[in-house]
């Protein structure tokens, strides 16, 4: 596999490796043949060698979401790891740590009206330049439940019929943050903003590293298809959302204390399960800026 990130993706922007070639500085244990891998042999609290950085880039490109266990990180170390992949993104609505706008708080307990990310989505796709990836560090886990599901949007696109691929070719969708974020965080004291981002993106996106096509609509943010009647567009989106949820495209990650998940928002969707009430699940997320989909 050969690829290159664009100029926004951080100081180490290239890798060259054949998919399936052995890794030298990390271990890679796939969760499924389609998506997800647990990485070992690396301590993210310590400086990474150039070779380790390259192999983590490669593992993310090949597996779409990668996981690390037993990682004890300070907020500064968490952000430093994210910056290896690019400039950090500031969420347009969610709460963050004081003085650290890039450090998003993820917290649900017995008093929470909802949990972060309960429906299938890709993070903040309503922005003109949506995030490249998200790095979630969970420090407190419920005794059971609280898993996160991830789905491969390359596989979802590849499984479409040729007629559907032709129909979607060149089609644009509107992604709107207003109905998602307006009032969402008021119960925890976060005031609404005057406006929230919205953007138009291709329904079929080309990944800037792998060059592969993937579906880039999601039930969280995509409000409609442009250029077709509303009822037709709504019916197509319903079909695509149902199609994307095929378990054959998925993996499921069981959290433990001090686990990390790093997912590629450009080609994967995720869904957090809130099946652990009244227990607590808590941690932090940093998100890496991306580029405009094409």
Question: What can you see in these coordinates?
Answer:
GO terms for molecular function: dioxygenase activity. The chain is α+β, with helices and mostly antiparallel strands and 294 residues long. The chain has one domain (2-107, 114-285): Double-stranded beta-helix, CATH 3.60.130. 19% of the residues lie in helices and 30% in strands. It has helices at 50-63, 75-83, 153-158, 162-168, 178-181, 230-244, and strands at 2-4, 14-16, 27-30, 37-40, 65-68, 88-89, 96-97, 100-108, 133-140, 148-152, 172-176, 198-202, 204-206, 213-215, 222-225, 250-253, 259-264, 268-272, 281-288. The strands form five sheets. Strands 3, 4, 5, 6, 7, 8, 9, 17 and 19 form a nine-stranded mixed beta sheet that branches. The protein has a three-stranded antiparallel beta sheet with strand order 16-10-18. It is globular. The model is unreliable at 1-16 (pLDDT under 50).
